[in-house]
Hints:
Blueprint: E1 2-7, E2 12-19, E3 23-30, H1 35-50, E4 59-65, H2 69-86, E5 90-94, H3 95-104, E6 114-122, E7 125-132, E8 149-156, H4 158-172, E9 175-178, H5 180-184, H6 186-189, E10 195-196, H7 208-220, H8 240-248
Parallel strand pairs: 1-4, 4-5, 6-9, 9-10
Antiparallel strand pairs: 1-2, 2-3, 6-7, 7-8
Helix pairs in contact: 1-2
Amino acid sequence: MTLLAIESATDMVGVALIRDDAGEAERVHLGGRAHAELLAPAIAEVCAVSGCTIGDIDALAVDRGPGLFTGLRVGVATAKALGQALGLGVLGVSSLDVLAAAAHGRCGTEPARRVVSVVDARRGEVFAAAFRFDRWPAASGPIDPASVRDDRLEPIDPATLVDWLVGIAAEAGPVVVVGDGAVRYRQLLSGHPSLDLDLAAELSAPPPLALGRLALERLARGAEAPAPGDLVPDYRRHADARINWEQRAPRVPGAGEPGHRRT
Length: 263
């Protein structure tokens, strides 16, 4: 199998290509606002390094969020376009799962038992999920982060994040915290010894190879990649442009009052 993984949920733009017969290749670039400009060249780079063409790809995975609205839109749209062109489904993977999977495998000789992924949602908020890897039965094979995840479905403010993390640590022990949200609010988090931030900068963005490996594990367990048109990004809130438009739209006198009708 040759799988292409597309990562664009944060400021980083990344692509990984994993081949059964030729190993792995990865390219990452700091995207900022240039996700659209950087993604296609990154795909071309991993294909060239791996000695294959787009036509050789037979599986697709993409980070479906949560994360930056523009970055997700670019990555998911690109994955959908490739899926349509190649006749392939596209497996969407959570950015929070990818960060947790990467952290679980990078904590020295002993994998991290408790991980919290924190993605910067901008506007003074973060997206977050906690993972209790210590609850996974040892005989059950590779751990899928989704099976041990406690997801915060709404964006939360930094103070709420700190309270939540300290509560987890008080109940379950030290917590490894990763993601660009942890980097941005490191000063708030670093005052709590039970919160381990050693990997936060290294894993500020979900690594494309971790995304690809997690996608392959899920496909091997029987997960189905949906048709490109069925893949829905996990934005978790309206785009900033829509919010700003709604806030600035002129108000209709009486709108929202009982019995009011628009004309």
